[in-house]
User: Fold pantoate--beta-alanine ligase (AMP-forming) from Acidithiobacillus ferrivorans.
Amino acid sequence: DLQRLHEAGCQTVFTPDNGLMYPRGRQDISIVMPPRSLSKVLCGASRPGHFVGVCTVLSKLLHMVAPEILVLGEKDYQQLRIVQQMVADLNLNVQVLPGPLQREADGLAYSSRNTFLSPAERQVAPLLAQTLFDLARRSTSAADIASLTTEGWERLEQAGFLPDYLELRDAQTLQALNVPQPDARWFAAARLGQTRLIDNVIVP
Assistant:
């Protein structure tokens, strides 16, 4: 990461260690609670407390660095929405901008976790994105979302994935949708071997 930042022209990187971030340890610190409606679904449902940690450490970093702009990638879309809401709720003086989701040539969303995939798993992994794009394309006003969800889930299972969730949700509120609407996204998380992959695709 540091090498890539250097190549991009970055001159300063703030890399605090645990001693600076948590001088009294992590067990008895003030925490920042994420908005419940955004944090209890999708990844939050299977990873209790995860977004409490995200909001707490990020709020500390924002206070320490005081940036004007914070860019968060759309691959972790739920995290992006939670942080956007946290910044608004706490009146933090920073603009949160979404970074477009980047993909490999075969469609797999860029992620450091991809390096943990075996060669055989790496060949299968793009099916997650392919399934989401297919569901998004077929999510017309007359679509049966429940049937599409079942079809997509079974497709992933047959390919060797262990799905965690596959859902159509409102891109702003993250509320589940039974019918397509403007600003809707398909969200998915699934394990392939020991690696947990997440992705999302907007409905055109």
In short: The chain has a mean pLDDT of 96. The first strand starts at residue 69 and ends at 73. The beta strands are 69-73, 95-99, 162-170, 184-192, 195-202.
